[in-house]
Amino acid sequence: MQWITCGWPGLSRLWLQGQWAGLAVAAGFGVIFNLAVVMQLKLSGQVPETVQQSVWLLAAIFWVGGCFEGVLTTRDFRRQQQLQLKRNSSVVDTTTIDSLEQPALEEINDRPKDDDSTVSGQEICRESEQSVGDDLFIQARNQYLKGNWIECESLIDSALEEYPGDLETRLLQISLLRMTKRFEEALVEITQFQRWDGAEKWSFEITREVELLERILSNREDSEITHAA
Predict the structure, then answer these.
(1) Torsion angles phi and psi, residue 44, rounded to 5
(2) Do 181 and 204 contact (CB within 8 A), yes or no?
(3) Per-residue model confidence as pLDDT tens digits over 43-61
(4) Taking the model in full, what pTM does it have?
(5) What pLDDT sits at residue 19?
(6) Domain range summary for the chain, segments of one domain joined by +
(7) E strand or H helix at 134, and its extent?
(8) Virtual CA dihedral for 25, 31, 33, 39, nearest 10 degrees?
(9) Which residues of 12-43 are buried (b: 16+ CB within 10 A; e: fewer)?
(10) Per CATH, is 93-228 categorized as 1.25.40?
(11) Which tens digits make up the pLDDT trace of 73-111?
């Protein structure tokens, strides 16, 4: 059913990713298409034929370009879904995470899951091999849970080099920067994260990261003021 959204320009972005830009594109195409229909059926003879043809041509170009963009958007959305299903159904080695802070564990475990059943995710894992980027993410997540920050960062860099648009990996990177006390870098990454298509899906996690960073920075400022006094 997701592929049906490709039939109307902008609908894929609006329906699958919740982007307001998709609504603007869909409405724009609707205006042009309706204008072409009105000229053809109601204003025939009153509007020059060249103008009618121009409007129909514009609508056709708009539709072809919008459908092509919709296919790309839907394909990327489905790929993200498959990656998340694989990751949610994979077994994580947590035998050495006793020393890790509880909030860090909650950040990983509380991430949103797709509506598909766990059984479906397990079937995908059995039937197909994980991609290189997906495998790197799972390894990075394991190292994060173990508190091996250097190994985790190296794996994250490799995963993002393989697939820069992997927002789940980017979210893990932000958590890693916070855990390693690189707060300014984490804030920069959050700003860049919010510019990616599909970032709205992770709005809860990003808001939580911002709140944690603000709390940490506020406590640090209070501590510095106390020491100065």
Answers:
(1) -60, 130
(2) no
(3) 777 878 888 888 899 999 9
(4) 0.49
(5) 73
(6) 2-81, 93-228
(7) helix 132-146
(8) -160
(9) bbbbbbebeebeebbeebeebbebbeebeeee
(10) yes
(11) 888 777 776 666 665 555 444 444 444 444 444 454 555
